[in-house]
Amino acid sequence: MDPAGRxxxxxxxxxxxxxxxxxxVLQARQEMVVPPLNFDMVAPGVYRSGHPxxxxxxxxxxxxxRSIVYLxxxxxxxxxxxxxxxEGLRIFHHRVNMNKxxxxxxxxxxxxxxxxxxxxQRHLPVLVHCNKGKYRVGCLVGCVRxxxxxxxxxxxxxxxxxxxxxxxxxxxxxxxxxxxxxLDPEHKPAWL
Length: 192
Fold this sequence. Notes:
Order of helices and strands: HEEHEHEHEHHH
Strand content: 5-15%
Main location: cytoplasm
Low-confidence stretches: none
GO molecular function, one term: inositol diphosphate tetrakisphosphate diphosphatase activity
Shape: elongated
Subcellular location: Cytoplasm
Number of domains: 1
Keywords: Cytoplasm, Hydrolase
Radius of gyration: 23 Å
CATH class: Alpha Beta
Distance between the termini: 69 Å
Number of strands: 5
CATH topology: Protein-Tyrosine Phosphatase, Chain A
Mean pLDDT: 88
Oligomer: single chain
CATH superfamily: Protein tyrosine phosphatase superfamily
Protein name: Siw14p
């Protein structure tokens, strides 16, 4: 008998309450927000992560991004590029190699240019990402922290949380010439 006592329900007939519950579960799955790998907030309006994918688009949309700074030598993935264009986001692609002992080092000019994009209020909120959100992003964030006046120990602790110990990157962060970062004082964020 059905709960109202009106007799047996035909086989396969789903009660309306169960049908609504199933619909709600399906909607919740579709609306599920998943941050990209190694996602974190660096400062108000500045976020870091690994390369986003389709599962992350709903999450990123909630950040109301204006721009993306991509730190990698390879081309931007077409699916993310198309999504960013649909969302009206500006993409700043800085072709940066990873630091590898003994011969490869990140280009300081390219890093300085990326920092100018990240630290311009007109581009915020911004997502800064590389492939895994560890080494290149870690170096850039380390330079942001130096500009903020963080201690060297705290910078390296934050770097290690995402990337572990990588001496080449730690040296890059410490030796990076901050005078190369030419910020527009009129457009730099209040927290800097």
